[in-house]
Predict the structure.
Amino acid sequence: DAKTTQPTSMDCAEGRAANLPCNHSTISGNEYVYWYRQIHSQGPQYIIHGLKNNETNEMASLIITEDRKSSTLILPHATLRDTAVYYCIVRVEVGGSEKLVFGKGTKLTVNP
Amino acid sequence: AAGVIQSPRHLIKEKRETATLKCYPIPRHDTVYWYQQGPGQDPQFLISFYEKMQSDKGSIPDRFSAQQFSDYHSELNMSSLELGDSALYFCASSGTGGRVTDTQYFGPGTRLTVL
């Protein structure tokens, strides 16, 4: 079963920041938080992941609370092409062969 | 950068037929994963291989089998197809091929339709 809870849907205005929350209250010390997104029936696309510290890359920022029980994915300037289902996944990173367990995700709609 | 390649992209089969889906991982990736996504559903893990050995198994029907070959490509074989097998099938790969280590990168998927 998925170990995360996300809102079912969210809306965001184009050009504004999109902040997608995720609860993972049962996360273990060796589990990472991963974010993927899926744009209409395409393959899931890796966005970012982190363990404890906040992370930033060219796509997004990941803010993880100090107790690691929740996190927020931030898309700083959302565009229409960011409309997708966003999945927050908790995963143990042991040698790289750990499967991904997808939950329901958040359907983000970016409006013009 | 090279991505995961899946073939075919679309496949239409009749009930009780067989199907073979192929996956070519990102160069130098040694781990392959298969996921199934039914209509309106979220992706579900089927099976994975690391260095040509099965590393994990999910809710994969006994009618399905898979393997990873010496060149690291993988094939998912599906027999006695049922209407409920109609879905998107995604392959993902991970390894140390120059990207974020051990992160899974997904292919575009194969859409299987069983009539």
Summary: Chain B has a mean pLDDT of 92. Chain B touches chain A through 29 residues (CB under 8 Å). DSSP finds no helices and eleven strands in chain B. The radius of gyration of chain B is 13 Å.
